[in-house]
């Protein structure tokens, strides 16, 4: 079919947002919040989605926020603090290491009573003394789908 004869397509899918940040799940009153600082564009963090998928009966109590480096860490931390979760899970990768360290420090100050969990490929091999883990309550190394769900219970 010639390009001029192609049928019109619908608009791009609408991405749910919370305070300008792509989100999924319960963004009204989550007890569990999963976070990531993605690269400079919006894309899905599959690791966080695996964690969500394995929460079982806790899934309705979970939200996911995916910031970007362009959006900035402070906006993501502010959005997380506004939700007042009891458990936070932050995914750390090589491309978001510095931003994640900043995010974790902001989260600890804003939500001192929350259980702050860190995992992901970058967190899995760093030594325990690494500054990334300052103020973190739980470090999950390796596959975290089962462990994170147990922590949330």
Word description of this protein:
With 153 residues, the protein is of the alpha/beta class. Helix content is 27%, strand content 22%. The protein has 4 helices and 7 strands. Strands 1-2-4-3-5-6-7 form a 7-stranded mixed β-sheet, with helices on both faces. α1 (46-53) packs across α4.
Salient structural properties:
single chain, 153 residues, alpha/beta, 7-stranded mixed beta sheet, 7 strands, 27% helix
Fold blueprint:
Layout: E1 17-18, E2 21-25, E3 32-38, H1 46-53, E4 62-68, H2 73-83, E5 87-91, H3 97-110, E6 115-119, E7 138-139, H4 145-152
Parallel strand pairs: 3-4, 3-5, 5-6, 6-7
Antiparallel strand pairs: 1-2, 2-4
Helix pairs in contact: 1-4, 2-3
| Molecular shape | globular
Distance between the termini: 55 Å
**What is the number of beta strands?**
7
Mean pLDDT rating: 90
Biggest sheet record? 7 strands, mixed
Walk across the major sheet and give the strand order. Answer: 1-2-4-3-5-6-7
Summarize the structure.
The protein has 153 residues and is α/β, with parallel strands linked by helices. Helix content is 27%, strand content 22%.
